Amino acid sequence: MIQQVEDPAVEVHDLTVTYHKKPVLWDIDLTLPRGAIIGIIGPNGAGKSTLIKSMMNLIPHSSGYVRIFDSNIDEVRPQVSYVPQKESVDWDFPASVMDVVLMGRYARLGLFKRPRKADREVALDCLKKVGMEAYKSRQIAQLSGGQQQRVFLARALAQEAEIYFMDEPFAGVDAATEKAIIGLLREMSEKGKTVVVIHHDIQSALEYFNWIVLLNMRLVASGPTQETLIPSLLEETYGGKLTLLAEVGNLMHKKEFTGRDKR
Amino acid sequence: MDAFWIILTGSFVSISCGLLGSYLILRRMAMVGDAISHAVLPGIVIAFLISGQRDSITMLIGAGVLGVLTTFLIEFLHKRGNLQTDASIGVTFTWLFALGIILISAYAGQVDLDQDCVLHGEIAYVPIDLWITSTGKIIGPRAVFITGSVLIIIISFIIIGYKELFLTTFDPAFAAAIDISTAMWHYLLMGAVSLATVASFESVGAILVVALLIAPPATAYLLTEKFLFMLILTAFLGIFISVTGYYLAVSIDGSIAGAMSTIAGLLFALAFLFSPKEGIIITWLKNRIIKKELSESF
Asked: What are the φ and ψ backbone dihedral angles of A3, each rounded to 5 degrees?
C-alpha cells in the first residue's frame, strides 16, 4: 500500500542508502502530503533515523534523490527544521534553556551576528508554547527528560520552518509532555506545517498521525493512517516477531473503533 | 622587568590554551589537544629545514599545517579504518612525534633546535631573546609579541565564530541540519589549537602545554554552568597560574613551566574538592545536613 500524493512536501525517489557497504535503506520511493502529521514506524534497525537524515541530506545517498517542496534541499534549508534524539547531546553542557532555544534562530543569523531582542522574543514565545517559559534561565543540566524534549521542540519552533523532522520526540517523556507535544503538533499541522515524526508505539500512532510510513529497510507502506495501520501490513513490517505480532493484533482489535472515531 | 615579561608571556600562553581547551573538553576531545601539541613537532623541524632559520612565522605555519593534518589523520583512521578514536589518536601523534625527533636528531642537532628545548621549553629565556629592529632599537622580548599576536587571533576567532562554535560543540547534528558546516568549524578549531600549541612551545614545551590546554578549563567547568563564564573564568585562571607559578618557581629555584603546571593541577584539585556544583566535600556536607535535618524532623 504505497499511496503517492500530488504536490508533496517531501518526494523520495528510488533512494538507497548504505552504511559501511551494508544497505540500510533499499529503494525507497514515496511522497508525503503537505500539512500532515506523518508517523514513521518500524522495528529497531529499520532505518527510520537514516530515512529522515537522508531526507535532510545529512548523510550521503548511494542512489536516488530527495526533493522538499519541489526543490533541492539546499535551496529550502532554512525552511527545514530538525529535532534530533535528545540522547544525542550532552545535557551536562554548560548552557541555559534560553541558549539552546536561541540556536533555532542561528539559521536566520549570519556569521558575526548575535541574536537580537526580536530573536529572544521569538524564543521566549516558543518556550511558552511548550510550557517552559518559567525555565528560561535554568541550566539544561537540571532538566528532566520531558523538559529536555520540550526545550528541543521549542528550539525547532524558534526556527519558524515549514517542515519539521523529529527523531522519537515521544521517547522517554512523561504523559503530560507527550500530551503537550501532540497538541503542539496538531496546532502546527493546522497552520499548514508538515511534521514528520519517528514513532515506536503503534497504539498511540493510530491516534496521533494522519499519514503513516511503515518501514523495515524497504518501504512497506505509505498512506493515510486507517489504510496503513492494518494487521497484514504491520505483520509485514515487524515480520517474524510473533509475540509482538499477537500483541499488535490484540491492540488493533481493541483500538479499532475508538481509534477511528477519535480524530 | 624580567619577571614581568615572563609572567606576561605565561599569561598569554595559558589564556590562549585555556580558551581553546574549553571547547576541546566539551567536545570530549581533550586528548586531541595532547596529540596536536606533540604532532606539530615534525612540522616545526621541516619548516626549519626548508627555511633554514628559526624564524617564528615559518615555524608557526609548519606547525599549523601539521596540526590540521593530524586531525585529518585521526578522523580518517577513525572513519575509514573503523578504528576507535582513542586508538587512532594514539597511533597518529606518537608516530608523528617520533618522526619529529628523528628529524631533529639527524638534521638539526647542531643548530639551536634541540629536543630538550622542544620537549620542555624554557620560559625563563623569554627576556633574553629580544626583538631588535634593523635600526638597533630594542622593542621587547620576541616571545611576548608572538604569544600576544596568537592570543589576539584566538580571541578574534572565538568572538567571530562564537555561536557557530557553541552550536557545533553542543549539537553537531542540528548544526548540520541548519547548514552550519561542522567539519569546517572542527578544522578551524583544530588549526587554532595548533597555533596556540606552537606559540606555547618555546615557553612551556610540548608536554606541559597539555596541562594548560586542559587543567584550567576543566577547573572552570567544575565551577560554573554557564559557558561564557567558563571561558572568562578560564582566562583568569590562566593569569593566576602564570603569576603564582612564576613566584613558586623563584622561591624554590625550580622550573617555571613545571611550577605553572603544578599550580594548574592544584587549582583543579581544589575545585574538585570544593566546587559548589559537584565538589566532593560540598556534596558530603550537603548530604550530612540533609540527613541531620531529616533525623531531627522525626
From this structure: -100, 130
Q: Are B228 and B140 in contact (CB under 8 A)?
A: no
B237-253 pLDDT, tens digit each: 999 999 999 999 999 99
The predicted complex's ipTM stands at 0.85
The residues near B230 (Cβ < 8 Å, ≥ 6 apart) are A94, B22, B217, B220, B221, B224
Neighbours of B189 (CB within 10 A): 23
What residue ranges of chain B have pLDDT lower than 70? 53-56, 108-121, 202, 298
Query: Which tens digit of pLDDT belongs to each residue from A172-212?
Result: 888 888 988 999 999 999 999 999 999 988 888 888 999 99
> Which CATH superfamily groups domain B2-217?
ABC transporter involved in vitamin B12 uptake, BtuC (1.10.3470.10)
Residue A59 in contact with partner chain B when CB distance is under 8 A: no
Sketch out chain A's domains with CATH numbers. Answer: 10-262 (3.40.50.300)
| Test the A interface: residue of B178, B182, B185, B188 with most A CBs within 10 Å | B178
Instruction: Say which of B171, B224, B226 has its CB closest to residue A84.
Output: B171
Check B178 against A96: CB less than 8 A apart: no
**Chain A closest-CA separation from residue B159 CA (Å):** 8
